Amino acid sequence: xxxxxxIHEEHxxxxxxxxxxxxLANDGCFYPSHSLIKVQNDENDAHxxxxxxxxxxxxxxxxxxxxxxxxxxxxx
Length: 76
Description:
- Residues 3-22, 48-76 form the 4Fe-4S ferredoxin-type domain.
- By secondary structure, this protein is an alpha+beta fold.
- The chain contains 2 helices and 4 strands.
- The strands form 2 sheets. It has a two-stranded antiparallel sheet.
């Protein structure tokens, strides 16, 4: 099933669980740079930026594992 991933950056804690589960699902290893989702810290404030790569297949794993609810699944 394909999902639409809704991003709520204001809830992000920067834990990188989304990047870890994405890299595991796509590459078989826990390596954040292989992830199709990127979480970046804005050095000027305490906020995190979340960006989905254009190659993201919307599997929804990142949102399923997001404990802060910064990523939420919505059925397509």
